[in-house]
Amino acid sequence: MTLDPATRDAVLGSIPNLRAFAISLCGNVDRADDLVQETVLRALANIDSFQPGTNMAAWLFTILRNLFRSEYRKRRREVEDVEGKYADNMKSQPDQEGRIELQEFRAALAQLPSDQREALILVGASGFSYEEAAEICGVAVGTIKSRLNRARARLASILAIGHVSDIGPDRATLAATSPPLPPGQAAV
Predict the structure, then answer these.
(1) Buried b (16+ CB within 10 A) or exposed e, 27-45
(2) In order of start, what are the domains of the chain with their CATH numbers?
(3) pTM for the structure as a whole
């Protein structure tokens, strides 16, 4: 990309005013400098969209303002965690077991009769109501409910699920990823 000297001078000449504007927006010199740098980079990357003869400073200020607003919207959703309290409480389960369980589930699902599998996928996975699933399959609502009940029972049998606590991480994984208990309190 070749930049003509007049355009380059106009961009560089606007930096002090862009910096002052950025500081007034964010109140932090370091963040303001980052914002000005990003503004200049974006302006240079999109210089072809600048209309010659129009106000270069206004175009640059618009880019800066839009960048600031985008960054502000992103940061509004972030939680500041200077002391690390939130990060200390964040734990994730290892995904190896989840992958194995998904493979086992797929194999068990394949063992179901097609009408039961269809009902389970429509209602359980796709979120259709019993009535909508019945309409899609061209059967009565009671038939969908019956197929779904048999599918769930068969899956539980194939996967050896006797209780809802059998689903998800085992006790050892839960113990390793749970926050510590207060002194004197026993694990359940």
Answers:
(1) eeeebbeebbebbbeebee
(2) 5-76 (1.10.1740.10), 98-165 (1.10.10.10)
(3) 0.42
